[in-house]
Write a structure and sequence with these properties.
heterodimer, A: alpha+beta, Penicillin-binding protein 2a (Domain 2), Beta-lactamase, 2 domains, six-stranded mixed β-sheet, five-stranded antiparallel β-sheet, 31% helix, B: mainly alpha, three-stranded antiparallel β-sheet, 3 strands, 70% helix, 3% strand, transmembrane helix (chain B)
Chain lengths: 650, 427
């Protein structure tokens, strides 16, 4: 025992130490990563974000440098807070609040302290920065919008949130990421890849030089430029026309599905969502729950499509062989089921064939056609399903699959839908006749309607609408170049197209003709309701118009929706007509029509439900006349033609 | 056995010499990692610490030749003189010494500094060997035990007075020597009991310690049939245990300085209040945490020589001296660190083996002293760097930067190599 005590102790201690080393170095240790090494400072070099051009090569979105003051709380040494706060233009209380917030996030990771300094503040601060340990300036690039239009399309950048960072470790706190519009849907294309520099720190957190002479450093890879399908001139014109109205305009090139204009009213100047005032402005836009400027009415608003939907019923009736173009239907100011009037109609000549049924928008004609389609099948539910499948082949009732981040499905009800609502076999075609005229359960977004007319203009097919035209050094996704066929045979389109052409010649849009252009269109008027203090209250009808032009080989398909604009040709028809002329001819000859749009506002109409007073609708109202809205100059990016005005009043 | 011993070149034990060389060279490489500023130009750049250490290593070889060329009998004959000189050097510090980091343990000669406590170790080992090898000395008598203890208490107290508590603890290693040379078993029992009681008292308080001691003492009383203590003796033992525990607590609470308290508190995880613990960790455990992280980050095979990011960034304070082992951990990984531990175990075991084979008691006791001193340094230093033992500032033999330390350990070891080489000349 005496001889071996020390020997034994040495062996025990040795084994103990080796197991401790095993625990520390092998068991506990995760694979070594330079990124996780706290002895190495990672400095990011942000790449140029891709520019955005319109279809004609006009620059819409560029970049501007921005400087964030970043903080690593653990490294902060006592400092002259008074001077620091003055330099940053914040109060002492702000300073403490920001400091604690950063510390709560992480004492050792950088977080933004004061984001997006102006160039002037940066210049002053930069010289004194060395006095403030634990703070540094991170250069980033912000968006610089060269235009005041298209906020809903162009979208904006915002600071990446915690959840995204956890899912995608590429992003760090304070990084900017696309939040809306193409910035969001083409984030991966536009963002590029940031470069990184590894810098060896010492324990005082001083930089002592590049790690391994910069062997692992990478250069930033710039984001790709993109060209979008929007025609900036057309978009701007559409926004001008939409001023003081709410609604959406969607214009599509039927030959390839390119979105030429996507207007949502009211809109805002995209420059509002850049820089330090972004969060303040965003909150203000976000909180406006009445005008909803962040709500893209072209993509997200589901309205009953109204009369334009009738042409789909005409097509389905022809395809199913339940009607012929020459078959006459008589109309006695409405459709009668026995002695019961199911649907009213306006005054027009009777009887009507398909051509004049469309041109005069006869309700009775389409209820007849619709009932024939559904009752063609012994099982009403199955008949309804056949009808729904045809309608859906036009891109209705489901997401279209375009490349913008927001949207709605719309609704095309099928047999199951009514089985759920009424119970199986407890309903018949007479229960659901509203669908015949685009009311009732049918709903669609403006872009779905625009796509629908594009398919009609193409006589039976469409391309998925899209916003991307070119990606630098890359091709656009093939789903945008694939033709989608509808279930209607080509020959059935001619009588329908002729009917839509006659809408302009003898029908509801006869006043909207453009000399030299053959337009095919369809007016629509949709009743709508709102709950005011739990009372269902009717508002002035929505004004709807869809059209394509020219009649053969159409260049533009358009859907216009103006909320509470009353009848179809009153606002929407005029605006569609002007947009078509602007796009095809480049100039407006009918300045009186343009003047009418620019001098009439619907703001009073929109204020009614919130006034707390009883109000009148439709024909019992007078239209608000205003001074003519002026188009802003091209370089005046600080003014938006379409920014919500009088918001404080609402 | 003799025939094999005869074959050794010049009579020296080359295993020890090879182990020594491996440790010194590997130590120097790690000092280079831990201390270089900027790029490594020349390996002998005198403006850098590793350059200076290279000179210390060079001088070590001169020292070894000197030690080995002196006749072996010299060390036995002049052991007392060497001891007295070493003690005088320690005393002289109170008058001529220089304060470094609050410890008055250095002589300054020009730009050079010398730390006499590093040389007092081998001197004490010689003196103890000399005293124990005296035919008159009988380690089973209390008086001789006290005399032997006095020999080690003298340098220990002097060093403690110079505020170098770490180096004082080293002298406890002589317990192994005394025990080997006939100290009664009871002392081992007392030593182990004392350590257990002290830890229990600090960790769980006096009450629980008392209960455990009572159970221990009385179970011994009831179950040991032979040689058992009487009931009265058992009660006295118990009382001594309890008052010892109370003494430990009092010592911890009122004698130890706050930073020493904190180190122990961190080691035994005594602090429960998370805010206080956090503050304590910041104040006291910074080195420890950095050192553990550096070792841990080395992983299986390490980041490679001169590639340690924490070493390059100088995250671990005192990394080239007391914390040199963390460099091994980071740059050479589990494999390299285990290699170093095996080197030390091999060296100590080899010295022990040779000590047991000595015919002269002086050589045997001295060899035991060498093994014990190396062992306690190795255990406390690496244990501390790995976070197993509270922070105590003593160097890792042959590894840590510094001339005095390297020379002190070299003299300690090579006097034994010389003594060992001489055993065939003894009758």
């Amino acid at each position: 025992m005496r001889k071996i005590l020390l020997l034994l102790t040495v062996i025990i201690v040795g084994l103990l130490f080796i197991s401790r080393l095993f625990y520390l170095q092998v068991y506990k240790q995760e694979a070594y990563s330079l990124y996780e090494d706290t002895a190495i400072r990672k400095v990011f070099d942000y790449p140029k974000r891709g520019y955005v051009y319109d279809r004609n090569g006009k620059l819409l979105v560029a970049n501007q440098p921005s400087y964030d003051v970043m903080i690593i709380p653990r490294e902060v040494e006592p400092l002259d807070t008074l001077e620091f706060c003055q330099l940053l233009k914040i109060t002492k209380a702000d300073f403490l609040k920001k400091f604690n917030r950063a510390k709560n996030y992480s004492p050792r990771l950088p977080s933004p302290f004061v984001p997006q300094l102006s160039k002037k503040d940066y210049a002053v601060l930069q010289e004194k920065m060395r006095k403030f340990d634990g703070f540094y300036i991170q250069k980033r690039s912000l968006r610089d919008y060269q235009t005041s239009i298209g906020a809903n399309v162009l979208g904006d950048l915002g600071e990446v949130n915690q959840r995204t960072i956890e899912k995608q470790p590429y992003y760090g706190l304070g990084d900017l990421i696309g939040k809306q519009g193409i910035e969001l849907s083409y984030e991966d294309v536009l963002k590029g890849i940031k470069g990184i520099k590894f810098i060896q720190k010492d324990r005082f957190n001083k930089n002592i030089g590049p790690y391994k002479e910069g062997r692992f450093d990478t250069l930033p890879r710039p984001g790709k430029d993109i060209k979008i399908t929007i025609d900036a001139e057309l978009q701007k014109y559409g926004e001008l026309l939409m001023t003081n109205k709410r609604g959406g305009i969607v214009a599509i090139d039927p030959s390839n599905g390119e979105i030429l204009a996507l207007v949502s009213g009211p809109s805002y100047n995209p420059n509002l969502l850049v820089g330090r005032s972004r969060s303040k402005n965003f909150t203000e836009l976000y909180r406006d729950s009445i005008a909803k400027p962040l709500f893209d009415r072209g993509l997200q608003a589901q309205y009953p499509p109204g009369s334009p939907f009738k042409v789909i019923n005409a097509l389905i009736a022809l395809q199913e062989g339940v009607m012929t173009p020459t078959e006459n239907v008589s109309c006695r100011m409405g459709y009668y089921y026995g002695s019961r009037k199911l649907t009213g109609c306006h005054h027009h000549r009777s009887p009507v064939d398909m051509n004049s049924g469309i041109a005069l928008s006869c309700n009775a004609y389409f209820v007849t056609a619709y009932r024939k389609i559904i009752d063609n099948h012994p099982d009403t539910g199955k008949g309804m399903n056949i009808w729904a499948a045809h309608a859906k082949s036009f891109g209705l009732g489901d997401y279209l699959g375009y490349d913008l981040p927001v949207g709605q499905k719309g609704r095309i009800p099928d047999g199951d839908y009514y089985d759920r609502a009424y119970g199986a076999n407890r309903w018949g075609s007479t229960y659901v006749v509203s669908n015949a005229i685009g009311q009732g359960e049918v709903e669609a977004t403006p872009i779905q309607l625009a796509n629908m007319v594009a398919a009609i203009g193409n006589r039976g097919y469409y391309y998925t609408p899209h916003i991307i035209k070119e990606i630098e050094g890359d091709s656009i996704p093939s789903k945008f170049t694939t033709r989608r066929q509808t279930t209607i045979d080509k020959q059935h389109f001619e009588p329908v197209v002729q009917g839509m052409f006659d809408v302009y010649n003898i029908g509801t849009a006869a006043s909207l003709r453009i000399p030299g252009i053959d337009i095919c269109g369809k007016t629509g008027t949709a009743e709508n309701f709102i709950n005011i203090d739990s009372v269902k209250t009717q508002l002035t009808d929505h004004s709807i118009f869809v059209a394509f032009a020219p009649k053969d080989n159409p260049k533009i398909a358009i859907a216009v929706f103006v909320e509470n604009g009353y009848w179809g040709s009153r606002f929407a028809g005029r605006m569609a007509s002007l947009m078509i002329e602007k796009y095809i001819n480049g100039t407006i000859t009918r300045t009186d029509m343009e003047n009418w749009i620019l001098t009439h506002s619907l703001e009073n109409e929109y204020a009614k439900p919130y006034s707390g007073k009883p109000f009148r609708i439709n024909g019992e109202t007078t239209l608000q006349v205003i001074d003519k809205i002026q188009a802003p100059k091209d370089d005046d990016i600080n003014n938006s033609i379409n920014i919500i005005t009088n918001r404080s009043k609402l | 056995m003799h025939s094999r011993e005869h074959q050794r070149k010049f009579g020296f034990d080359w295993i020890i010499i090879v182990l020594f060389l491996l440790l010194v060279v590997f130590g120097w490489l790690n000092i280079m990692s831990a201390s270089h500023e900027g790029e490594i130009g020349s390996y002998f750049d005198m403006s850098q610490l590793y350059g200076k250490h290279a000179v210390f290593v060079g001088l070590t070889f001169v020292l070894i030749i000197l030690i080995l060329s002196v006749e072996a009998k010299f060390y036995e004959r002049f052991a007392s003189v060497i001891y007295i000189i070493a003690m005088l050097a320690l005393v002289g510090l109170f008058i001529f010494g220089k304060d470094v980091n609050g410890a008055r343990s250095w002589y300054g000669i020009g730009s050079m500094t010398i730390q006499p406590s590093e040389f007092a170790k081998f001197a004490t080992a010689l003196a103890v060997a000399k005293y124990m090898s005296d035919l008159q000395t009988n380690m089973s008598t209390i008086l001789d035990q006290l005399k032997a203890v006095a020999l080690i208490m003298l340098p220990a107290v002097l060093i403690l007075l110079q505020n170098d508590a770490g180096s004082t603890i080293v002298y406890a290693s002589f317990f192994f020597v005394f025990y080997r040379e006939g100290l009664q078993q009871i002392y081992l029992a007392i030593a182990i009991s004392a350590i257990v009681l002290a830890v229990l008292a600090l960790k769980f308080g006096i009450l629980i310690t008392g209960v455990i001691a009572t159970i221990g003492v009385f179970s011994s009383y009831f179950f040991r049939r032979k040689k058992r203590a009487s009931l009265l003796q058992s009660v006295v033992i118990l009382l001594v245990c309890i008052s010892f525990s109370a003494g430990v607590r009092l010592f911890y609470e009122h004698v130890l300085k706050p930073h020493q308290q904190n180190r122990i508190s961190l080691w035994l995880r005594l602090e429960k209040d998370p805010a206080k613990l956090e503050r304590m960790k910041k104040e006291e455990a910074y080195n420890l945490i950095q050192s553990e992280q550096a070792i841990s980050s080395g992983g299986w095979a390490g980041k490679g020589f001169l590639q340690g990011t924490r070493t390059t960034g100088k995250f671990v304070p005192e990394q080239h001296t007391d914390y040199i082992f963390s460099t091994v951990g980071e740059e050479w990984g589990f494999l390299g660190s285990t290699f170093v531990i095996i080197l030390f175990m091999a060296l100590i075991i080899r010295v022990l083996y040779l000590a047991e084979s000595q015919k002269s008691i002086f050589s045997r006791v001295y060899g035991y002293g060498v093994a014990s001193i190396l062992f306690i340094h190795f255990t406390i230093n690496t244990g501390m760097v790995m976070g197993l033992i509270p922070t105590v500032g003593i160097p890792l033999p042959f590894f840590s930067y510094g001339g005095s330390g390297l020379w002190g350990f070299t003299i300690l070891l090579f006097i034994f190599v010389k003594l060992d080489s001489n055993k065939i000349n003894e009758w």
